[in-house]
Amino acid sequence: MQMNHPISKLALVWLTLLGSVLDSSAELEFGHCERVVKRWAESSTSPREEHPDKDKRSLQDLLFFLHVPRTGGRTYFHCFLRKLYDNAEECPRSYDKLHFDPRKQKCKLLATHDDYSLMSKLPRERTSVMTIVRDPVARVLSTYEFSVEVAARFLVHPNLTSAARMSGRIRKNNVISTLDIWPWKYLVPWMREDLFARRDARKLKGVVIIEDDNPYDMEEMLMPLHKYLDTPTAHDIIHNGATFQIAGLTNNSHLSEAHEVRHCVQKYKNLGEPVLQVAKRRLDSMLYVGLTEEHRESASLFANVVGSQVLSQLVTSNATAKTKTTKQEASVTFSESGSDKSEIQNGTSEVASNKIEAKSGNMTVKTLMEVYEGCITHLRKTQGTRRVNSLKRISPANFTRGARTRVPNEVIQQIKSLNNLDVELYKYAKEIFVKEHELVSNKLVSSSKRSIVDLQNVFGEMEGEKLWKLVSVALMLLLLFLLFLFVNARRRITSKVKI
Questions:
Q1: Residue 64: strand pairing partners
Q2: Residue 283: pLDDT above 90?
Q3: Active site residue 89
Q4: What region, left, alpha or beta, does residue 288 occupy, with left being phi > 0 and alpha being psi -120 to 50 degrees?
Q5: 212, 240, 386, 463 — which has fewest CB within 10 A?
Q6: Marked catalytic residue, from 124, 387, 404, 406
Q7: DSSP string, 384-412
Q8: 362: helix, strand or coil
Q9: Rg (CA), the chain
Q10: Which of 145, 149, 329, 343 is catalytic?
Q11: What does pTM read for this prediction?
Q12: 145 noted as active-site residue
């Protein structure tokens, strides 16, 4: 025992030294991350973001729709933006549909899943930004569901190799695929591989009886939600996704330092605050911030804030070159709408007529909202049918609103914890939305009051004699109308007597 005592002491010394080295290494790594995040945050605030009220509410030459996935942005794109802008006015993307192609200088609309770092390639002072934010729990659940839904479409193939081969053929034919769009180019193949592996495992087992009907915890069919949340892919792409996208720090970022900053924040939670503050400032500087949960109010706000300005610009441009513009826009609308197969299937003539109405200056905010309501009804029906057909391949798993109540509370809390930055950003977005909604409502009320006052002033400015003449004419017209009704009534009575 006495011989082992010095060895034990030596081992203890070595362990202490090792612990000190590790602690020192961790402190050095944290210090490095702290400097990296701070340096990025200081360089990420533009003068426009420091003074967000300056020209914030004026639509600039280019509208950049920063589309956060699973927030309802597709609805806005198809049912609002495509009614206001021609295909020819959209900014083109590069071959993989991920990054902006800046070759077209005079485009007016850029709608993409690219993050805010794309602003480095755009004329910042001539660009307005809009986005939609969603409750983080609902967004994460929807991301999981959509990953499964799209991946399940490939189960029509006998094996994974066949599915991958078909995907390659689609790309060669220049057909837009979900697999070409961030973040689904990462999430769908990953989920597709998992679905095929589980199907193969079921085949080996033979008959598999699935007793639980909770689609979020159906391990025989698909990856359970609680396991999905804790994967490296989910940590890198999904959690705090809205904050990282608005901050410009996704794995699709144009910034060289984005990867390091994002991973520092993911590793050290308390370094997330500078990133959150940058994202908040950017929301403040945006032309429009919508909320998925406030669907009707958000749509109305968009129509009055963004839609009204686009329509106003169209009226102005029509006034300067009315004949030329009308001929050109009619030609563009019909030829280019025919190139989109989905629009042919969904009623190209209706879409084209809506665009012509907007381009001719006949569309108002009210009619824009009516067009939007009709469009979303059709779009939701189409998306619902496709979803049902996809999920049939992994039956009995089926994602419904009712099914979400089956998600355990501890999993909900896990989502909130993993998306702590998004939780705070969503609260801030709600504050912005309430202020903007109130501001627009007050403007509409004051505008109505001004119209009434102007009408009263018109009558008030009239002299007594003119006003009396106006009243006399009105009474004369009323008497003539009553006489007309009386004569018609007498004729009907006379004809009945003759019969």
A1: 110, 129
A2: yes
A3: no
A4: beta
A5: 463
A6: 124
A7: HHHHHHHHGGGTT----TTGGGGS-HHHH
A8: coil
A9: 30
A10: 145
A11: 0.79
A12: yes
